[in-house]
Amino acid sequence: xxxxxxxxxxxxxxxxxxxxxxxxxxxxxxxxxxxxxxxxxxxxxxxxxxxxxxxxxxxxxxxxxxxxxxxxxxxxxxxxxxxxxxxxxxxxxxxxxxxxxxxxxxxxxxxxxxxxxxxxxxxxxxxxxxxxxxxxxxxxxxxxxxxxxxxxxxxxxxxxxxxxxxxxxxxxxxxxxxxxxxxxxxxxxxxxxxxxxxxxxxxxxxxxxxxxxxxxxxxxxxxxxxxxxxxxxxxxxxxxxxxxxxxxxxxxxxxxxxxxxxxxxxxxxxxxxxxxxxxxxxxxxxxxxxxxxxxxxxxxxxxxxxxxxxxxxxxxxxxxxxxxxxxxxxxxxxxxxxxxxxxxxxxxxxxxxxxxxxxxxxxxxxxxxxxxxxxxxxxxxxxxxxxxxxxxxxxxxxxxxxxxxxxxxxxxxxxxxxxxxxxxxxxxxxxxxxxxxxxxxxxxxxxxxxxxxxxxxxxxxxxxxxxxxxxxxxxxxxxxxxxxxxxxxxxxxxxxxxxxxxxxxxxxxxxxxxxxxxxxxxxxxxxxxxxxxxxxxxxxxxxxxxxxxxxxxxxxxxxxxxxxxxxxxxxxxxxxxxxxxxxxxxxxxxxxxxxxxxxxxxxxxxxxxxxxxxxxxxxxxxxxxxxxxxxxxxxxxxxxxxxxxxxxxxxxxxxxxxxxxxxxxxxxxxxxxxxxxxxxxxxxxxxxxxxxxxxxxxxxxxxxxxxxxxxxxxxxxxxxxxxxxxxxxxxxxxxxxxxxxxxxxxxxxxxxxxxxxxxxxxxxxxxxxxxxxxxxxxxxxxxxxxxxxxxxxxxxxxxxxxxxxxxxxxxxxxxxxxxxxxxxxxxxxxxxxxxxxxxxxxxxxxxxxxxxxxxxxxxxxxxxxxxxxxxxxxxxxxxxxxxxxxxxxxxxxxxxxxxxxxxxxxxxxxxxxxxxxxxxxxxxxxxxxxxxxxxxxxxxxxxxx
Length: 945
What we know:
Strand order of the largest sheet: 8-9-11-10-14-15-13-12
Shape: globular
Number of strands: 15
Largest sheet: 8 strands, antiparallel
Oligomer: single chain
Radius of gyration: 35 Å
């Protein structure tokens, strides 16, 4: 690209010439979405204004009359554009021009009314001239339905009283039309001075466009900008735009975030605009197509640029029309509506919105590729290097033959020689990892343009497989290479099985990233774990990873664990089948292939067992140990599970999940190490009673024995010693009071688990679990886990592990008020069922999520209970509704485990019938299933109101 001395400055903006159109009237900037007269009937509207103004009416009446005419014109024009857009929902470029044309007409009409009738000048002086100029996006001729209207009122010298009056009248009329107008009144000298001082202002001038008024004055501005503002300083301008882009990305988040900002987000329209601004500043082009002959874009790159730009503009315009206001964020509810407007339909087990969002992210990725390559090259050639001392002291790595270092990036010495060996398409990324150098943009473009070289012969080449596996295992930072390979299309070319999940969005509130980005995030978590960066957060996993695990198996399994997503089949089962093919192609041994297949097939097993089952039930551990079989597999599955959860999103992993998985791992490891099921009920009971005796050694022997004797075995097996001590004290106080209505409560934050433990002791009565769940729901508590136990002498002890609305343990200062509210609810002063009606509303943004309700009965997962799993749409009060429904069916709830995955909740109950038996009879199960589904439906209807 040319430097400052050879650069071509932006050409002056073209000005209107005599074309038979009346002076000061709008003219289309390219093809419109429908006939110009349907958008803004210039002749008719100007004639009506002239007719009204000829009679010299009162100025206020005239202004009101003009506004009324233009309001009707706006309504008519907008309706015509919207109708045409509905018929051709991807016609983004004609749409933006059409809104520009409509706005041009409104500006021209208000200027005509203001200068001809409201503030006429029979004999204007040289100072009483004005040009109205569009700047920014409006100047570029790109307007979404509710874009801002940025205007420059240009005067030759200091603004006169006449100009002030014209501007004021125009603005009042435009504001009355509900246009959001950004405006400035400046002289040409002001424009040059401010443009030199502020790069944002300079950028707006870069795309100025004359609208109406004094043509000579507008032409003088264009000439002065060309000669005095845009003729130098490209390095500063580029650095300012690069810095602005970096800050914007940091503010908006990665382009893989599932609710992207179409305008400002990474891979959005602003990235394309930044690219064009810089190109225009450097080369003086008026449109992106002119960058192809200059060598900035290859033809295929420009096609991608144009396709992405058109797609993003279509999405943005539909967002505006749906919201009826400026709206740039593609939120979940809007995604469904935009997908429908664009004509997407469900297919192959995927919702229309997911197909649409995959297209969106693929375009965003391509925008990222283009802007990164283009801007990275600019950064290397047009920005300042670091301080001299830093450059002298910086260690310059030695690169292998065939490569070179150019502007501190890894480049290719000879393109032809590089492409002669197609394995170089992989070696480039391996060399980048080895040298810790970023890849030069020219090298990236070369790779992206030659993906066809990655064919079946290369995919089945042993050396290629070793190169790929080496990138995963040998350099400590595989995430960087995988992400770059993925963005350039190399990863999907080398592993075609990966291609379907590229840019694939999962339409839910649980996953923060697309499937491919989630996979790469997981690989990054594994690499951090190996580097020892997560020892404080993950002590058990950090030890397990050094227990002699097969690193190759671990990395390949994590890379492929979600490879089966997006098809109608169970993605774990399909993924295991795909993994078998990929592993054989990559040269893994038969044993390694089988282990990878097992890990992919079972990658949700540990998470499900820990979060959906009662770990305190010995049967849970026994069944999990039988499924895992060996300690090596347990270590591998632990690491995969932890990396998978941590790779879902920034706020998904917490101490509660960590404590559950850690407990399951330790108990299972103990069982596998001993070779026998030592974690028996009797063992746990004996250890728990011995622990209580030690803690309460100062109690009178009679009181201590009474406390031990009143509890059944499950009580000792299901709670930690700290809870046993709390309940012993609560029960002593309760029995001493002799009041059957007395309720004892102990709330204690367990910071290391991110929960507050709530212990309740009271006289037993039917439906107690539901009442407790209702009381906690009423105070806004999220219940993570719960257990209730009846005593032999007619009391009940219940433990709930709760979090506040933000997923944190309750602050100590909030506990007294929380306790008071729970007391009031349990005493009947507040009826939870009624009070929750106004609280359990689902936010509008979240109502697009549909989760079908499924009820599963499991009589094998516990020796003494039937496990009922209800998988449905999460909402406030759900657990209470389900528990109340079970209580009304005379079902005893021993424990409940609550797992949430964004908008999805899985509430699991361990229950017995009124006779203390399991639910084996199919007819009873069917009736209970119908009751639970009705409870969910009734609550959902309430939440939608």
